[in-house]
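Quick one:
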Amino acid sequence: MAYVIKDACISCGACEPECPVNAISAGDSIYVIEAASCIDCGACANVCPVDAPQPE
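Output:
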């Protein structure tokens, strides 16, 4: 199950460098996770100040 970034995202960028498979990128208004690349490790969720990354 991949993680997704919810609307609570404040686009701080803390999650992007934490992803070991580079599945996170800046979207139009919030960061996005490429579901096919996500390995469900939760590293992004561990550093997010607003708990935006959640299991899908």
